[in-house]
Amino acid sequence: MPIAANTRFGPYEIIAPIGAGGMGEVYRARDTRLGREVAIKVLPAAFAADADRLRRFEQEARATAALNHPNILAVYDIGTCERSPYVVSELLEGETLRQQLQSGALATRKALEMAQQVVSGLAAAHDKGIIHRDLKPENLFITRDGRLKILDFGLAKLTEPQAALGSMAVTAEGATDPGTVLGTMGYMSPEQVRGQATDARSDIFSFGAILYEMLSGKRAFHGATSADTISAILKEDPPDLVETNRTVSPALERIVRHCMAKNPEQRFHSARDIGFALEGLSTASSAPLPAVGEESPKPGVRWIAPLAIACAALAGVLAIGRYSAPVGNVASAVPDIHQLTFGNGYITSAGFSPDGQTIIYAAAWAGKPEEIFATSAKSPESRSLELKNAILLAVSSEGQMAVKLHPNTFGAFARPGTLATLPLTGGAPRELLNDVEAADFSTDGSQLAVVQRVNGQFSLQYPVGKVLFTSPLWISHPRISPNGTRVAFLNHPFGGDEGSVMVAEKSGTVRELSSGWLTLQGLAWSPDGKELWFSGTRVGLNRALYAVTLEGKERVVLRVPGQVTLRELSPSGQALISEAFDHLMLRGKVSGAADERDLSVFDAGVPAALSLDGKMLLMTEVGEAGGQGYSVYLRPTDGSPATRLGEGLACDLSGDGKLALSRTFTKPAKLLLLPTLGAPQEIATGNIEPGCGHFVPGGKNIVFTGEEADHKAGLYLLELSAGAVPKLIARILAADPLSPAVTKDGKFALAPDASGKFWFYPIAGGEARPALGLLPDDSIAGAGSGSTLYVYHQSAPPQVIFELDAATGQRRPWKELGPADRSGATNTFFAVVAPDGNSYAYTYDRILSELYLVKGLK
Q1: Which of 38, 435, 480, 621 holds its CA 20 to 30 A away from the CA of 46?
Q2: What is the model's pLDDT at position 280?
Q3: CB contact set of 99 (below 8 Å; sequence gap of 6+)
Q4: 549: pLDDT strictly greater than 80
């Protein structure tokens, strides 16, 4: 019997039925705690007595809850009410792939887009040892905004991956014995219909059958009876796709056939491999595909693109030596370069073992979280140290590793986690300190320097507990000098990776050695302790390797194409350097559009504001194309060419879209008014050095953050007229270069007070009111009507934007952002939401890097 409306399952109130299936009934419900609508799958009490059905139902919840991926249904909760178990998940609006296929085959391009989302979700599940075992069009749901979600892991089987010798990992017991047939006829693999043991390749077979149906409009295996269908799965191949769809290329046909091979050994061995094959197909053949019967490319032609890529990669490696030839004060010796890694992803840290022969590094390969590996110059192979979701911080002379466990993103780059140590020879990590950003060992391994986030501030401590320097935003790369008397570090006063090279004496004196860097990462002492080597650039994103003396004299050590990051210097002068190609990808979706659009202009776009109608995006180009000091662009969201308005960091766009506001990186900083037609104008702020600002609706006033000569930070109101003087609204924590939020009605500005607590400050004067529900690591993407805020934690994709009612503290998920392919995708950040909540834009960082051992640098 259907469950009546208003029935309560814990905090969830039933609204209406959605559907029913073999695993239970599904209802629309309201989460009374968070004020959001959810879906509840309920297993009737009569079925709960069936131990096997109950086990499978609970397994669905466990399996799906273990996954966090944009192409897999999100599970929020599980419970039991009056002997009826239930699972709470996100509520989806849209239709199943089966419903879409009722109209026939999909367009080839759309089928490929759907297929790539399926394999992306499957890869995430398979990486956690979970196979679906019941893939079919009914279990693939397409939301109204075009996102595909895999449903119903009710038949999922938790498989036990091959563990390394000595691993203490605990894996779940298999849910189904060989000999039991589970699945849906027509999409089951041959091993499934035989009742044999299955693995991820069974899902790949089912995926192939689904892709065949998307392209042809007909089922791959379908007979008059179940026996006929089974016979077709075991013995027959479906008709060629080109018989029903002449736009299917031979390469795509081969991918589908490869998925549906009868023998599992002859299929793709991973969903990720399929994703690479499909991505290569879509990027290499964006031109119309030749019709059947047209002349095929000559055999040698297909090798041109791979050969060009290989030559380009080789040229990049050779360029390291070529570009290190004498140029000005660049060292004259040609260094010896040896590539150490060969992955699809990015390096996060690296260091030498005490004997200098083994290299320990952390990397995120193929979209997986960071993991720590060991390798050497003698072998191209890397060995996992079975430390997952961990980052290497340092290796001591005594063979101890300092690692950061379970890092959490804070701001654009900082990722505090739990500091732990363990021997290189293996063993369980010994946890020492929470909220640690970075650490380094002294030369004798007896002491640690750490950067720790304490009470909202980053503090440099050496030794642990003795604070030498603090900053509200980000400190990185502490490095203890060879003699142990001082510690160098990078200071990032605006929270990004811009900043200065600093050195702190153990006595407490702090000095700035080199400043003005737009991107600054990587730091090490020279073996003699007379210089600090670091990687940075004052223009764009492509860092070079520099050295600076303790007296502040700089020199170039190495400049190459791409982005260089110094990871470590050995006592003998060998360097570990990663070379990366880093792109900040800018995407967005505007009101009325069905899908997101690529809004990038060059290599590194950061969104600042959207016009009220969502037709214009104000952005900053912070990469090579942005030049020194960055550039501000106005970008039509329909794909039309962008217009450069001026320099600096883009802050806000006026309501009518005719004026932009930017902040320069000069000393002192300036606020600029950038008309869409006309010359830039400096805004006089008196003796206040400004952060960024925001237009008050109406366009006659701005609100900005700033710092006075006595270093007191404030929130100010300034009329845009000659001779106007800034008016203090409130004292705040820091002059953050990012804009304060202004409510849609223009009555309030949102900023943190001197203690870090956020308040709505009346712009016209009056009593402030607290903003409830904001968490310490929240970033604000925009302000809507009333007390509505759009907030998020900067993190690796997928990025969830929440809609927060700051009057009550209630929040609900609003959008999930990020690319389907997460290889090399590090952070999703700098999201902006238009005041009406109908348009948004965001940037995510895609880095592809490799690690090199370099000898002979001077």
Answers
A1: 38
A2: 63
A3: none
A4: yes
User: What burial letters (b/e) apply to 535-550, b meaning 16+ CB within 10 Å?
Assistant: bbbeebbbbbbbbbee
CA atoms of 122 and 71, how far apart (whole Å): 8
* 260-297 pLDDT, tens digit each: 999 888 888 788 888 877 876 654 443 333 332 333 33
Give the residue among 357, 381, 361 at the shortest CA–CA distance from 371.
Answer: 361
Half-sphere exposure of residue 421, counting CA atoms within 13 Å on the CB side?
16
Q: Which of 140, 51, 48, 60 is nearest to 85 (CA)?
A: 48
CATH class assigned to 339-516:
mainly beta
Amino acid at site 18: I
Helices (H), 569-623: none
Is the pTM higher than 0.90? The answer reads no
Is domain 583-848 annotated with CATH 2.120.10.30? yes
Please say if the pLDDT value at position 211 is more than 90: yes
Given pLDDT bands bounded at 50, 70 and 90, which one contains residue 48? low
What would the 3-class secondary structure string for 675-709 be? ECCCCCEEECCCCCEEEEEEECCCCCEEEEEEECC
8 A C-beta contact, residue 754 and residue 371? no
Catalytic residues: 134
> Can you spell out the DSSP letters for 189-258?
-HHHHTT----HHHHHHHHHHHHHHHHHSS-SS--SSHHHHHHHHHH--PPPGGGT-TT--HHHHHHHHH
Angle, CA 850 vertex, CA 849 and CA 855 arms, to 5°: 135
Which residue type does 702 have?
I
The tally of CA atoms less than 13 A away on the side-chain side of residue 534 is 31
pLDDT computed for residue 755 by the predictor: 72
| CA 838 and chain centroid, separation | 23
From the options 3.90.1570.10, 3.40.50.300, 3.30.200.20, 3.40.1710.10, give the CATH code of 8-90: 3.30.200.20
pLDDT tens for each residue of 214-240: 999 999 998 888 888 888 999 888 988
Quick one: average pLDDT of 44-58? 68
CA distances from 749 to 237, 662, 772 (A): 65, 18, 14
Q: In terms of Cα–Cα distance, which of 481, 579, 415, 353 is closest to 361?
A: 353
Q: Where are the domains of the chain?
A: 8-90, 96-284, 339-516, 583-848
In this predicted model, which residue has the larger pLDDT, 322 or 399? 399
Asked if 8-90 and 339-516 have one fold, the answer is: no
Yes or no: say if 460 and 473 are a contact pair by the CB < 8 Å rule. Answer: no
The number of C-alpha atoms within 13 Å of 500 and in the hemisphere containing its C-beta is: 14
Is the bond preceding residue 798 a cis peptide, omega within 30 degrees? yes
> What are residue 583's phi and psi, to 5 degrees?
-130, 130
Helix (H) or strand (E) run with residue 364 in it:
strand 358-365
620-628 contact pairs (CB < 8 A, 24+): 620/648, 620/649, 620/650, 620/662, 622/518, 622/541, 622/584, 623/540, 623/541, 623/583, 623/584, 624/539, 624/540, 624/541, 624/542, 625/540, 625/601, 626/540, 626/602, 627/539, 627/540, 628/518, 628/538, 628/539
At a CB cut-off of 8 Å and minimum separation 6, what does 812 contact?
Answer: 34, 35, 36, 802, 803
Place of tokens 């007296």: 551
CATH superfamily, domain 96-284, is Transferase(Phosphotransferase) domain 1 (1.10.510.10)
Helical axes 108-127 vs 200-216, angle rounded to 10°: 170
Helix (H) or strand (E) holding 114: helix 108-127
Which element (helix H / strand E) includes 565? strand 563-569
**310-324, 410-424, 429-443: range with highest mean pLDDT:** 429-443
Angle of the 200-216 helix axis to the 250-259 helix axis, nearest 10: 140
